Amino acid sequence: MIITLKSGINKAQVDAIQKSIKKFGLTPHVSHGAVRTIIGVIGGNDYKYKEQLEALEGVESVTPILKPYKLVSREFRKDDTVIDIKGVKLGGQQVAIIAGPCSVDTKENLLLCARAVKKSGAHFLRGGAYKPRTSPYAFQGHGETALKYLAEARKATGLPVVTEVMDTRQVDIVCKYADVLQIGARNAQNFDLLREVGLCKKPVMLKRGMANTIEEWLMSAEYIVSKGNSNVFFCERGIRSFETATRFTMDINAIPAIKHLTHLPVIIDPSHGVGVRDYIGAIALAGIAAGADGVMVEVHPKPTEALSDGPQALLPVTFDALMNDMRKVAFAVGRTI
Question: Which of 86, 106, 137, 308 could cysteine-pair with 160, CB 3.0–4.6 Å?
Answer without folding.
Answer: 86
